[in-house]
Amino acid sequence: MQELPKSIPNRKVVHCPDEIGTLRGKAAPWHAGMLATSNEIVLTTGADCHVPAKWIRKTVAMFDDSTYIVSGAALLVFRNRFNGLIARTQNLDMMLIQGMGTVYRF
Hints:
Elements: H1 4-7, H2 27-36, H3 55-61, H4 84-100
């Protein structure tokens, strides 16, 4: 990890304990990363996410002076295909959950 920032410009390693106060799991390193950056826009995904090639460019383009957060839908992929009733039901459930958490511009 210490060598990674040397090979990729504008990257750094942020050291984080397993817990920060009451934050555990994914929340603790995300919090440490947010505290360690001075960037205006921070994009995050899960370790198991696959994003399209232009995801960063398209997401950043959605920000303007009155935008606080941009969120996008994520679908489950099974064997690189959407298939079967179970997969479709899980994706419908995922979209409904994500829709409930959508933040609207005021």
